[in-house]
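Data availability (excerpt). The following record was deposited with the supplementary files.
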Amino acid sequence: METVLIPIVFQSIFTLLLIRFFIKEEINIPYLDIILGVLMVHLIYKAVLLSVFNGGVQYEKLHGAFSLLYGPLLYQYFQNKHISKNKKIIISRNDLWHYVPFLLVFMVNAYVLYAVYALDKLVLLDHYHLVVFIVTALSGFLYATYILTSKTFASKIDLHKKRIITGIACLLYIPGVLGLSHSLWPQMPGRIIWYLAICLLLVFILIERARAQKRALSLLQEALRAEKQRQMEAQRKVYAHSKLGDSERKAISGKLTDIVIREKPYLNAQLTLEELAKMIDIPKHHLTEILNVDLNTNFYHYINGLRIKEAMRLMRNGQFDGNLLHVCFASGFKSKSTFNKYFKELTGTTPKAFRERETLTEG
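Predicted structure:
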């Protein structure tokens, strides 16, 4: 039974990293993250039992009652109606009834654990094990069946969430399936199957969450592009009757490019549209027109885009010893938050990640 320790320890560490990753990326889903946390606590608890009782009968038959939390938490994740706008869970009285079985079994478990460890009353284990197993299997079966057969699940849940719910629901069926299989094959290593199933489930959730993040980012970028295109079309209509001819437009664009390359005015953090227009010796509304119509951008995006290119050049050259704050100011930004925002928007990565990648490439 010591072989079970490997997936248990692996899954505990894996879940910690998983939760930390999603909190860092700010895509946390409260109930789903709680499920991951409970799985981690559950597996650590079993690892402790394995260590204390050296894989004996106590390890096999002592339950932590944590399995009784998965059904209610999956139900809350499925309902998703008790979460505020800032993603904080709001507990209602009706929610609490779902957790009564866990609380009761947990208290009984504490007594049995004391009786077995301190008083050596192993006789309690068989009855306790059987009762908890039946309650756990029944709870998982009822919650999973209710969710998977509901009309809401069939028609109103998006595909990504539906896959995660189905995966967790399948896990809830496993105790019952193992119980039936054990009656036909008493020597079946049910514990190993159970914990390996948990490992596979969480790897599956990790993949689904990563896909969801990628999809959300893609949809956001698409929405931003559509909005930008809409704004550009509106600007073209505004300048539909512009007095600037093609030759004048080309001349202004050429001057703008020449000034940008030769004098790098964008390195001035206080640069304004009026100042840049004076450098080219044109009215500011002509410069705005060139930026909006010919370059499909506006003054701030144009200037900050040039600053980001400068920041990338500085990092590739290894200047400022990798100090991102110095790179930020040296490339013309007034604040690090604006620097980070435009860098991520234009390159798809953070300044820190870009710097580390360039360092590895050079190495």
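Summary of structural features: The radius of gyration is 30 Å.
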